[in-house]
Give the backbone structure.
Amino acid sequence: MTLIAIILGTLAAGIGSVWLAAALSFGALARYTQHMLSLAAGALMATAFMHLLPEAFESQAGAHDLFLTLLVGLVFFFLLDKAELWHHGHEHHHHGDGHDHHPAEPHHPHGPLPATGSWAVLTGDSVHCFGDGILIASAFMAGTQLGMMAALAVLVHEVPHHMGDLMVLRQGANNRRMALVKVSLAGAVTSLGGMVGFWLVDQLQDYLPYFLVVASSSFIYVALADLIPQLQKRLNAAQTAAQIVWLLAGIALVTLVSAAPHGH
């Protein structure tokens, strides 16, 4: 049953995030892009701090070791980001500071990407989704409810990422349908990661708290390094209030899901 839940959760997170990204990029939801960033930031932080970390710290693992894992995880994701930026930096040159994004403009979390790098984008996306699948599997192994939380958090944090990917692929081929198919296939790799994660965590049950902490560090890093900097713009009072409301809505959404009956 756990494996079925993992497959369903990873499919919902992997492919659902791509389709939502397409709706926000190409569809009637395009004007809500900024609201999605706020919602995603709130949901990610709430999932990490209210669910994954408490679950890890309730285990027999020592607090010192878990905090060290969290620190190493944050540094690792920072270095991963640096490597991706460095890789893309070779392919194009920025001018300006790169942070002045129009509120409705879809933005890849790692900055503008070149149209020629579509295969690099898809490869990177597939590897990223595979990792997400392992993180979701780890959470499901700790409990069904926790797995649902992690799948939801992955879904919302992948949306801005996939929006950037769709834009890059469209620039290369100018074909929405093909761009959607390609990014959906990359998203489907999340399920492959989930199945590998199920086997891996099953073999390494004692290390489950550490897997949960690594998942937390991923969510915290994405929220604080990728999403929140995009929200730190000079806005009028109404726009600022909307940002705060959507951020709180993300936290509330996670809290509501967590109020569901536990399934361990």
About this structure: The chain has one domain: 2-89+104-258. Residues 2-89+104-258 form one domain.
